[in-house]
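Re: the request from the purification team.
They wanted to know what the chain is likely to look like in 3D before they choose a buffer screen. I agreed to run a prediction and write the result into the notebook, where they can find it.
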Amino acid sequence: MIRVLIAEDSKTVATLLSAIIDNDPGIEVVGHATNGQQAVEMTYKLKPDLITMDIRMPIMDGFEATRMIMSTQPTPIIVVSSSVNNEELRITFRAIEEGALSVIEKPRGLSHAEADDIRQELLETIYAMADVKVIKRSRTIKKPDANNFKKLLNIKQRSYDILAIAGSTGAPAVLQEIISSLPANFPIPVVIVQHISKGFIVGLSSWLQGNTLLNVKMAEANEILQPGTVYFAPDDNHLTVSKVNNDLIAELSHSKKVNGFMPSGDVLFDSVSEACGRKAIGIVLTGMGKDGAKGLKNMHDAGAHTIVQDSESAVVYGMPGKALALEAVDKVVNVDTMAAYLSGILQG
Protein backbone atom coordinates (compact mmCIF):
# COMPACT_ATOMS: atom_id res chain seq x y z
CA MET A 1 0.00 0.00 0.00
CA ILE A 2 1.38 3.41 -1.03
CA ARG A 3 0.93 5.98 1.73
CA VAL A 4 0.33 9.52 0.46
CA LEU A 5 0.39 12.84 2.30
CA ILE A 6 -1.67 15.59 0.63
CA ALA A 7 -0.41 19.17 1.12
CA GLU A 8 -3.17 21.45 -0.17
CA ASP A 9 -4.89 24.48 1.35
CA SER A 10 -7.97 24.31 -0.89
CA LYS A 11 -10.61 22.03 0.63
CA THR A 12 -12.14 21.51 -2.80
CA VAL A 13 -8.89 20.39 -4.42
CA ALA A 14 -7.91 18.29 -1.39
CA THR A 15 -11.28 16.54 -1.53
CA LEU A 16 -10.81 15.84 -5.24
CA LEU A 17 -7.32 14.46 -4.67
CA SER A 18 -8.51 12.30 -1.79
CA ALA A 19 -11.42 10.96 -3.83
CA ILE A 20 -9.12 10.01 -6.70
CA ILE A 21 -6.50 8.41 -4.46
CA ASP A 22 -8.83 6.60 -2.07
CA ASN A 23 -10.67 5.04 -5.01
CA ASP A 24 -7.53 3.09 -5.88
CA PRO A 25 -7.01 -0.05 -3.78
CA GLY A 26 -3.23 0.28 -3.82
CA ILE A 27 -3.01 3.83 -2.45
CA GLU A 28 -4.19 5.49 0.75
CA VAL A 29 -4.20 9.05 2.06
CA VAL A 30 -2.49 9.11 5.46
CA GLY A 31 -2.75 12.83 6.13
CA HIS A 32 -3.82 16.25 4.86
CA ALA A 33 -1.70 19.33 5.50
CA THR A 34 -3.25 22.73 4.84
CA ASN A 35 0.02 24.68 4.75
CA GLY A 36 3.70 24.08 4.09
CA GLN A 37 4.70 24.05 7.75
CA GLN A 38 2.16 21.32 8.48
CA ALA A 39 3.44 19.39 5.47
CA VAL A 40 6.97 19.42 6.88
CA GLU A 41 5.81 18.40 10.37
CA MET A 42 3.52 15.64 9.08
CA THR A 43 6.30 14.30 6.87
CA TYR A 44 8.51 13.86 9.93
CA LYS A 45 5.68 12.25 11.89
CA LEU A 46 3.95 10.07 9.29
CA LYS A 47 6.90 9.25 6.99
CA PRO A 48 4.69 8.92 3.90
CA ASP A 49 5.86 7.13 0.77
CA LEU A 50 4.99 10.18 -1.31
CA ILE A 51 3.71 13.76 -0.98
CA THR A 52 1.45 15.71 -3.33
CA MET A 53 2.51 19.31 -2.87
CA ASP A 54 0.50 22.45 -3.59
CA ILE A 55 2.56 25.56 -4.33
CA ARG A 56 0.50 28.46 -3.01
CA MET A 57 -0.21 27.79 0.68
CA PRO A 58 -0.32 30.02 3.79
CA ILE A 59 2.43 30.22 6.44
CA MET A 60 4.92 28.34 4.24
CA ASP A 61 4.59 27.80 0.49
CA GLY A 62 5.24 24.58 -1.39
CA PHE A 63 8.73 25.62 -2.47
CA GLU A 64 9.94 26.21 1.09
CA ALA A 65 8.24 23.02 2.27
CA THR A 66 9.90 21.03 -0.51
CA ARG A 67 13.29 22.56 0.28
CA MET A 68 13.00 21.66 3.98
CA ILE A 69 11.69 18.15 3.36
CA MET A 70 14.36 17.32 0.79
CA SER A 71 17.14 18.57 3.06
CA THR A 72 15.99 16.76 6.21
CA GLN A 73 13.54 13.95 5.37
CA PRO A 74 13.95 13.22 1.63
CA THR A 75 10.63 11.97 0.26
CA PRO A 76 9.27 11.68 -3.29
CA ILE A 77 7.26 14.84 -4.01
CA ILE A 78 4.79 15.45 -6.83
CA VAL A 79 3.96 19.12 -7.31
CA VAL A 80 0.26 19.62 -8.05
CA SER A 81 0.09 22.99 -9.76
CA SER A 82 -1.70 25.21 -12.23
CA SER A 83 -0.09 25.54 -15.65
CA VAL A 84 -1.85 28.83 -16.38
CA ASN A 85 -0.46 30.90 -13.50
CA ASN A 86 2.98 32.30 -14.37
CA GLU A 87 4.03 33.03 -10.79
CA GLU A 88 2.93 29.59 -9.65
CA LEU A 89 4.88 28.04 -12.53
CA ARG A 90 8.00 29.93 -11.47
CA ILE A 91 7.74 28.62 -7.91
CA THR A 92 6.87 25.15 -9.19
CA PHE A 93 10.14 24.83 -11.06
CA ARG A 94 12.07 26.19 -8.10
CA ALA A 95 10.59 23.25 -6.18
CA ILE A 96 11.72 20.94 -8.98
CA GLU A 97 15.21 22.40 -8.61
CA GLU A 98 15.11 21.55 -4.90
CA GLY A 99 14.29 17.90 -5.61
CA ALA A 100 10.57 17.52 -6.35
CA LEU A 101 10.29 14.73 -8.91
CA SER A 102 7.36 15.67 -11.08
CA VAL A 103 4.62 18.19 -11.73
CA ILE A 104 1.03 17.51 -12.75
CA GLU A 105 -2.00 19.66 -13.45
CA LYS A 106 -4.27 20.44 -10.51
CA PRO A 107 -7.64 18.62 -10.85
CA ARG A 108 -10.48 20.97 -11.77
CA GLY A 109 -13.60 18.92 -10.99
CA LEU A 110 -14.83 15.45 -11.90
CA SER A 111 -17.09 16.90 -14.62
CA HIS A 112 -14.25 18.76 -16.35
CA ALA A 113 -13.47 17.67 -19.91
CA GLU A 114 -9.96 16.50 -18.97
CA ALA A 115 -10.88 15.05 -15.55
CA ASP A 116 -10.33 11.43 -16.56
CA ASP A 117 -6.93 12.20 -18.11
CA ILE A 118 -5.79 14.12 -15.03
CA ARG A 119 -7.06 11.37 -12.70
CA GLN A 120 -5.23 8.69 -14.67
CA GLU A 121 -2.04 10.75 -14.80
CA LEU A 122 -2.14 11.36 -11.05
CA LEU A 123 -2.51 7.66 -10.23
CA GLU A 124 0.14 6.59 -12.73
CA THR A 125 2.53 9.21 -11.38
CA ILE A 126 1.97 8.14 -7.78
CA TYR A 127 2.67 4.49 -8.62
CA ALA A 128 5.75 5.45 -10.63
CA MET A 129 7.22 7.83 -8.06
CA ALA A 130 6.49 6.01 -4.79
CA ASP A 131 9.60 3.83 -4.96
CA VAL A 132 11.87 6.33 -6.70
CA LYS A 133 15.07 7.26 -4.94
CA VAL A 134 15.34 10.93 -4.10
CA ILE A 135 18.50 12.82 -4.92
CA LYS A 136 19.84 15.70 -2.86
CA ARG A 137 21.72 17.79 -5.40
CA SER A 138 24.75 19.93 -4.70
CA ARG A 139 24.21 23.64 -5.29
CA THR A 140 27.56 23.85 -7.11
CA ILE A 141 28.86 21.90 -10.07
CA LYS A 142 31.83 19.72 -9.21
CA LYS A 143 34.94 20.13 -11.31
CA PRO A 144 36.18 16.86 -12.80
CA ASP A 145 39.64 15.55 -12.02
CA ALA A 146 41.89 16.78 -14.83
CA ASN A 147 43.57 13.44 -15.57
CA ASN A 148 40.34 11.44 -15.50
CA PHE A 149 38.64 14.09 -17.60
CA LYS A 150 41.27 13.79 -20.36
CA LYS A 151 40.68 10.04 -20.41
CA LEU A 152 36.93 10.62 -20.55
CA LEU A 153 37.27 12.91 -23.56
CA ASN A 154 39.61 10.57 -25.47
CA ILE A 155 39.11 10.55 -29.26
CA LYS A 156 35.67 12.15 -29.49
CA GLN A 157 37.04 15.70 -29.62
CA ARG A 158 35.85 16.75 -33.08
CA SER A 159 33.40 18.99 -34.93
CA TYR A 160 29.69 18.49 -34.24
CA ASP A 161 26.56 20.11 -35.67
CA ILE A 162 23.90 19.44 -33.03
CA LEU A 163 23.19 18.18 -29.50
CA ALA A 164 19.99 16.17 -28.98
CA ILE A 165 18.68 15.30 -25.50
CA ALA A 166 15.81 13.17 -24.19
CA GLY A 167 14.71 13.08 -20.56
CA SER A 168 11.76 12.21 -18.36
CA THR A 169 11.39 11.76 -14.59
CA GLY A 170 13.92 13.91 -12.74
CA ALA A 171 15.33 15.43 -15.91
CA PRO A 172 14.15 19.07 -15.53
CA ALA A 173 16.53 19.62 -12.60
CA VAL A 174 19.30 17.85 -14.53
CA LEU A 175 18.69 20.03 -17.57
CA GLN A 176 18.95 23.08 -15.32
CA GLU A 177 22.35 21.93 -14.06
CA ILE A 178 23.64 21.20 -17.56
CA ILE A 179 22.23 24.16 -19.48
CA SER A 180 23.07 26.72 -16.80
CA SER A 181 26.72 25.65 -17.01
CA LEU A 182 27.11 25.86 -20.79
CA PRO A 183 28.91 28.96 -22.13
CA ALA A 184 27.08 31.70 -24.03
CA ASN A 185 29.14 30.87 -27.12
CA PHE A 186 28.10 27.19 -27.12
CA PRO A 187 28.81 26.41 -30.77
CA ILE A 188 25.86 24.19 -31.75
CA PRO A 189 22.06 24.11 -31.32
CA VAL A 190 20.47 21.95 -28.62
CA VAL A 191 17.19 20.12 -29.27
CA ILE A 192 15.31 18.54 -26.36
CA VAL A 193 12.41 16.18 -25.80
CA GLN A 194 11.27 16.34 -22.16
CA HIS A 195 8.37 14.21 -20.95
CA ILE A 196 6.25 16.48 -18.76
CA SER A 197 2.56 16.97 -18.04
CA LYS A 198 0.68 18.87 -20.72
CA GLY A 199 0.80 22.61 -20.20
CA PHE A 200 4.09 22.79 -18.32
CA ILE A 201 6.73 22.68 -21.06
CA VAL A 202 6.53 26.45 -21.72
CA GLY A 203 6.99 27.09 -18.00
CA LEU A 204 10.01 24.78 -17.98
CA SER A 205 11.50 26.64 -20.93
CA SER A 206 10.95 30.02 -19.24
CA TRP A 207 12.47 28.80 -15.97
CA LEU A 208 15.57 27.50 -17.75
CA GLN A 209 15.92 30.78 -19.67
CA GLY A 210 16.33 32.53 -16.35
CA ASN A 211 19.20 30.21 -15.43
CA THR A 212 21.39 30.26 -18.52
CA LEU A 213 23.29 32.51 -20.92
CA LEU A 214 21.89 30.53 -23.86
CA ASN A 215 18.66 31.36 -25.66
CA VAL A 216 15.89 28.92 -24.65
CA LYS A 217 12.67 28.64 -26.64
CA MET A 218 9.95 26.36 -27.95
CA ALA A 219 10.79 24.85 -31.33
CA GLU A 220 8.78 26.24 -34.24
CA ALA A 221 8.02 24.51 -37.51
CA ASN A 222 10.47 25.17 -40.34
CA GLU A 223 12.84 27.39 -38.35
CA ILE A 224 16.58 27.23 -38.90
CA LEU A 225 18.35 25.94 -35.79
CA GLN A 226 20.95 28.36 -34.43
CA PRO A 227 24.10 27.78 -32.34
CA GLY A 228 23.79 28.64 -28.67
CA THR A 229 20.03 28.11 -28.69
CA VAL A 230 18.05 25.45 -26.84
CA TYR A 231 14.87 24.22 -28.54
CA PHE A 232 12.15 22.28 -26.69
CA ALA A 233 9.60 20.07 -28.41
CA PRO A 234 6.15 21.57 -27.69
CA ASP A 235 3.16 19.68 -26.27
CA ASP A 236 1.51 17.11 -28.53
CA ASN A 237 4.10 17.40 -31.29
CA HIS A 238 6.99 15.27 -32.40
CA LEU A 239 10.13 17.34 -33.00
CA THR A 240 12.38 16.25 -35.85
CA VAL A 241 15.43 17.75 -37.54
CA SER A 242 16.18 17.79 -41.25
CA LYS A 243 19.08 19.18 -43.25
CA VAL A 244 18.48 21.54 -46.16
CA ASN A 245 21.67 22.64 -47.91
CA ASN A 246 23.86 23.46 -44.89
CA ASP A 247 21.04 24.42 -42.54
CA LEU A 248 19.43 22.28 -39.85
CA ILE A 249 15.66 22.78 -39.84
CA ALA A 250 13.19 22.04 -37.03
CA GLU A 251 10.02 20.25 -38.06
CA LEU A 252 6.90 19.55 -35.98
CA SER A 253 4.29 16.88 -36.58
CA HIS A 254 1.17 15.75 -34.75
CA SER A 255 0.81 12.02 -35.31
CA LYS A 256 0.65 8.90 -33.16
CA LYS A 257 2.50 8.51 -29.89
CA VAL A 258 5.75 6.54 -29.88
CA ASN A 259 6.58 4.56 -26.73
CA GLY A 260 3.50 6.23 -25.27
CA PHE A 261 4.82 9.75 -25.83
CA MET A 262 4.41 12.69 -28.15
CA PRO A 263 6.96 14.23 -28.33
CA SER A 264 9.19 11.16 -28.35
CA GLY A 265 12.93 10.91 -27.86
CA ASP A 266 13.17 8.08 -30.38
CA VAL A 267 11.53 10.20 -33.07
CA LEU A 268 13.92 13.09 -32.44
CA PHE A 269 17.02 10.90 -32.31
CA ASP A 270 16.07 9.01 -35.48
CA SER A 271 15.77 12.27 -37.39
CA VAL A 272 19.06 13.61 -36.02
CA SER A 273 20.76 10.35 -36.97
CA GLU A 274 19.54 10.70 -40.54
CA ALA A 275 20.27 14.41 -40.84
CA CYS A 276 23.64 14.62 -39.09
CA GLY A 277 25.16 11.15 -38.85
CA ARG A 278 28.48 11.22 -37.00
CA LYS A 279 28.33 15.00 -36.52
CA ALA A 280 25.78 14.75 -33.71
CA ILE A 281 25.79 14.22 -29.95
CA GLY A 282 22.92 12.38 -28.28
CA ILE A 283 22.15 12.22 -24.56
CA VAL A 284 19.59 10.17 -22.65
CA LEU A 285 18.92 11.51 -19.16
CA THR A 286 17.09 10.09 -16.16
CA GLY A 287 13.60 8.77 -16.86
CA MET A 288 11.17 5.88 -16.73
CA GLY A 289 10.56 3.54 -19.63
CA LYS A 290 12.54 3.10 -22.82
CA ASP A 291 11.88 6.19 -24.95
CA GLY A 292 15.08 7.42 -26.55
CA ALA A 293 17.03 4.17 -26.15
CA LYS A 294 16.39 2.80 -29.64
CA GLY A 295 16.89 6.20 -31.24
CA LEU A 296 20.18 6.63 -29.39
CA LYS A 297 21.24 3.25 -30.75
CA ASN A 298 20.51 4.46 -34.28
CA MET A 299 22.58 7.58 -33.62
CA HIS A 300 25.40 5.44 -32.24
CA ASP A 301 25.35 3.17 -35.28
CA ALA A 302 25.47 6.23 -37.56
CA GLY A 303 28.69 7.34 -35.85
CA ALA A 304 27.30 9.97 -33.49
CA HIS A 305 28.74 10.41 -30.01
CA THR A 306 26.22 8.98 -27.55
CA ILE A 307 25.99 9.61 -23.81
CA VAL A 308 23.78 8.55 -20.92
CA GLN A 309 23.54 9.94 -17.42
CA ASP A 310 25.05 7.64 -14.79
CA SER A 311 22.96 5.68 -12.29
CA GLU A 312 24.44 7.55 -9.32
CA SER A 313 22.99 10.90 -10.36
CA ALA A 314 19.82 9.62 -12.08
CA VAL A 315 16.50 9.50 -10.23
CA VAL A 316 15.20 6.70 -12.47
CA TYR A 317 17.50 4.57 -14.61
CA GLY A 318 14.92 3.19 -17.03
CA MET A 319 15.77 5.16 -20.16
CA PRO A 320 19.57 5.27 -19.67
CA GLY A 321 19.57 1.60 -18.63
CA LYS A 322 17.67 0.56 -21.75
CA ALA A 323 20.15 2.46 -23.91
CA LEU A 324 23.05 0.68 -22.22
CA ALA A 325 21.35 -2.68 -22.73
CA LEU A 326 21.11 -1.93 -26.46
CA GLU A 327 24.85 -1.12 -26.58
CA ALA A 328 23.93 2.37 -27.73
CA VAL A 329 26.31 4.28 -25.47
CA ASP A 330 29.82 5.66 -25.90
CA LYS A 331 30.08 7.35 -22.50
CA VAL A 332 28.33 7.23 -19.13
CA VAL A 333 28.66 10.66 -17.49
CA ASN A 334 27.67 12.05 -14.10
CA VAL A 335 25.46 15.13 -14.25
CA ASP A 336 28.04 17.11 -12.25
CA THR A 337 30.55 16.82 -15.10
CA MET A 338 28.15 16.74 -18.07
CA ALA A 339 28.45 20.41 -19.07
CA ALA A 340 32.25 20.39 -18.78
CA TYR A 341 32.37 17.17 -20.79
CA LEU A 342 30.23 18.64 -23.57
CA SER A 343 32.34 21.79 -23.72
CA GLY A 344 35.46 19.64 -23.79
CA ILE A 345 34.49 17.47 -26.75
CA LEU A 346 33.39 20.54 -28.71
CA GLN A 347 36.77 22.26 -28.43
CA GLY A 348 38.36 20.21 -31.15
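For the purification team: The chain has two domains: 2-129, 146-345.
Please add any questions underneath this entry.
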